[in-house]
Amino acid sequence: MPGVNDPAVCRELAAALAREVSSPVRFMEVCGTHTTSVARHGLKSLFPPALGLVSGPGCPVCVTSPGQVQAVLDAAKRSGVILATFGDLVRVPGPQGSLEQARAKGADVRVVYSPTNALDLARNHPDKTAVFAGIGFETTAPAVALTLLQAKDEGIDNFLVLCLHKRIIPALKALADHPEARVDGFLLPGHVSVVLGAEAYEQADLGLPGVVAGFGAGDILLGLLLLARQANRGERRVENAYPRTVRTRGNTRAKEAMDRVFEPADAQWRGLGILRRSGLALREEFSGLDAEKRLGLTVPSLDEPPGCSCGRVLVGAMAPNQCALFETVCTPSSPVGPCMVSSEGACAAWALHHPLNPRKGHP
Amino acid sequence: MISSTGTKGFVRLEHGAGGLAGWELFSELILPALDNPALAEQGDAAVVEAGGLRLAFTTDTFVVSPLFFPGGDAGCLAVNGTVNDLAMCGAQPLCLSAGLVMEEGLSLDVLERVLSSMGRAARNAGTCVVTGDTKVVQKGAADRLFVNTSGIGVVAKNADLSPAGAKPGDRLLVSGPLGEHGAAVLAAREGLEIGGGLSSDTAALNGLVQALLDSACRIHALRDPTRGGLAAAINEIAWRSGAAVRIFESAVPVSPAVAGTCEILGIDPLVLASEGRMAMFVHGQDGEKALEVMKGHALGRDAAIIGRVEQGPPGRVVLETAVGGERLLPMPSGHPLPRIC
After folding, report:
1. Which site among A127, B84, B261, B315 is 20 to 30 Å from A196 CA-CA?
2. Is A182 left (phi over 0), alpha (psi -120 to 50) or beta?
3. B250 in contact with A, Cβ within 8 Å
4. Pair (A245, A318) in one structural domain
5. Are residues A170 and A221 in the same domain?
6. Which of residues 22-81 of B touch A (CB under 8 A)?
């Protein structure tokens, strides 16, 4: 069986896509891994000119608001705290600098690949408090939930979570009606869908075509082809083009773990502002492990860095190369906004895997 | 631009990652302070003339963690790294020096193993460590053991190599699968268990370079893709040479184990370090012949022609992706993978 990156398969899919797209149409991917894969494979060079694919709020670091970044920094600066986080977050600049800069000045900031590594830090350093910055969607949230359940089981009380997790579906609903996003359909995120199941989008009734897609070049081209077909036929269905991994019902164990630990709460999004019930907060039962409560942290309301357009890039209102800072003062080695920090961010994906002949802006 | 990178007077890990930030550190702080023509040349080694000979001189410091990793250790890495820096200028090593910074409490057994490995690697490369220095610092002031090696070599008479030497029509070759050292060290450090086995490619390339020079292939530029990987090595040569380079992703050799590790860690194999591979720009008519010479050598069995110098904007590196797309392959930046060498 040819793989998802088979050149012959991709050529055929690209040709079919070109036949299907005859008038301007604009889709949005809402998963950082899709953003990266499109860029890495140079897929946009294979798109028909009338097809636009814009990046939505799919990169966990990018949607974390400036105030939330500040709260993480505040936690890292507390004495006796080991701040553990996924790698990308350490480089996001805030008004008082980044975690990386805090580390250079003596804060104990550790990059971990799993929340269980943070729990190990708590076990190995009983005299310290290990704080895990929980960011990301329903992809990372289940592992954090399971780690919290384990910490509670073992009675570990020097492990805290600063819970900044987000739910993708409220963001999709906000974008479906967003006047500047102007999208005709969503390439739905493969990883989140493994947890939530394809049915979650049907239940949410997005009002636009949606296709769950995998991460290979062929997966993405197929997803776009199905979206284009729906758009041409005026359909608004949810299709699962990633059935080898995504089930209709999702991962019930992961969903149960999230339900036990988290409850929906209003949350700040970079670019989208506060969305109702779009975040995950720790349930009362877990308040003893809630960094916000235990350390008395607050999430301030802060503006974007001056000149930074990440908020508009994240809703598809602007392409990275339309931002005045893009590759002038904002580069992967000296990022101004989070979309240039995270390798999954739209600006970094563009800068690290530059399209060859980019159009100025999205169609 | 050091001042605008948000460093505010601090060195960041990224300054050591072999990409753009390190280049800025060199060009804006180091070069102005120590300015001279040999340093400004920015080769893997400096080439200076003495007594009618062209001498290559280089130094490298190794802070790899862990000290022992599949396929090698800090000792052989330190010798091979310096021998390779000389070899990339077309030089055979004359002799090496070694400086050891040891943390109080380092086990003498560990030290002995690293030193034996250095000795073996030097003998394999046909050279030896003729002088050195030891320093001990108190616990916490270093991490176990840091090794510096310097080397002097004699540049072959027929070698005309320069990082600015790539020319239109040149073929681009690599001597084997890329990224194996970087992947092996990262996996060892992260405790990743990956089937198929990852092993560092650390090796001395001076023999392979000699075979190529003896073949009379018209070699224009050599680079060992260490920190920053192939992406950094090719961008540097393209930029210095004013050449436009096209790389065919499907032709770039990457082992399944490295590809798998990259998938898991979210890293592009083209930015991962190799420590026993080289990239070579050779005259367009000599590409196939050079490939045969490489394949005839133990360290070049899996060599491949992966690209060419084409018409286009100077300094541009285009990657034709395996699925038929096109994009630029920029200088790596913003992704520090600390302490892999």
Report:
1. B261
2. left
3. yes
4. no
5. yes
6. 24
For B18, the closest chain A residue by CA position comes to A333
Show residues of chain B in contact with A107, CB under 8 Å: none
DSSP A184-234: SEEEE-HHHHHHH-THHHHHHT-SS-EEE--SSHHHHHHHHHHHHHHHHHT
B328 at interface of A, judged by CB pairs closer than 8 A: yes
Within a domain: A363? no
For A317, the domain range is: 310-352
Report which secondary-structure segment, H or E, holds A82: strand A81-85
The predicted pLDDT at position A39 comes to 93
Average pLDDT (A47-62) is 93
| A14/B334 Cβ within 8 A | no
The answer to whether B190 and B269 are in contact (CB under 8 A) is no
Q: For residues B75 and B83, what is the distance between their CA atoms, to the nearest angstrom?
A: 13
Show the domains of chain B with their CATH numbers.
Answer: 1-35 (no CATH), 45-155 (3.30.1330.10), 171-328 (3.90.650.10)
A308 touches chain B (CB under 8 A): no
ipTM for the whole complex: 0.77
Residue A287: other Cβ atoms inside 10 A: 12
**Least reliable range by pLDDT among A29-38, B193-202, B278-287:** B193-202
What pTM value is reported for the model? 0.83
